[in-house]
Design a protein that fits this description.
It contains 6 helices and 3 strands; from the N terminus they run ααβααββαα. It has helices at about 10-35, 40-50, 60-65, 70-85, 105-125, 130-154; strands at about 55-60, 85-90, 100-105. The protein has a 3-stranded antiparallel β-sheet with strand order 1-3-2.
Length: about 150
């Protein structure tokens, strides 16, 4: 039988602090995006990912993987964005089962409204709160966490 190795006091405190801070950060960022652009944090992430691609298009399976979303979770969000005219979908010309999501001109316009406040808030709450060294360590920490999650899922 595999016994759990319980967290010691220091580990437990660090974990609780992380959970609380990440929950609060996501809530505040979500509120800002809803106020400025009527988007959820997840929807903003989708639009950002699409906007960063030269033609604004990405296969939905690759988009789900890049964002860490389930296929059904991404489909739900894409349908909502499509209803608002921010994203369009089309069948892939190279794969019968593939679907391509594309950010629309209106989606780019909404991103332009949402991005300044979002970046300002991220900078205020995270980037400017850390020294350059802390920021580098934070990046390394979450790269390692991400790798472990990906390894676990494969």
């Amino acid at each position: 039988m595999n016994e759990s190795k319980w967290l010691n006091q220091r580990e437990h405190q660090a974990w609780r602090t992380f959970i609380t801070a990440s929950t609060l950060l996501n809530r505040v960022l979500d509120q800002q995006l809803r106020t400025d652009a009527g988007l959820s944090h997840v929807q903003y992430g989708i639009l950002t990912r699409l906007a960063d691609i030269p033609d604004g298009s990405m296969r939905m399976l690759a988009l789900a993987e890049a964002l860490g979303l389930t296929k059904s979770g991404l489909t739900y969000q894409i349908v909502q964005l499509e209803k608002e005219g921010l994203v369009s979908r089309r069948a892939s010309s190279t794969d019968d089962r593939g679907v391509i999501a594309t950010i629309t001109p209106l989606g780019m316009e909404v991103m332009g409204r949402a991005a300044p406040g979002h970046v300002r808030l991220v900078r205020q709450l995270v980037i400017d709160a850390l020294t350059p060294q802390q920021l580098e360590v934070l990046g390394e920490i979450f790269a390692e966490v991400q790798c472990r999650i990906v390894e676990r899922e494969t």
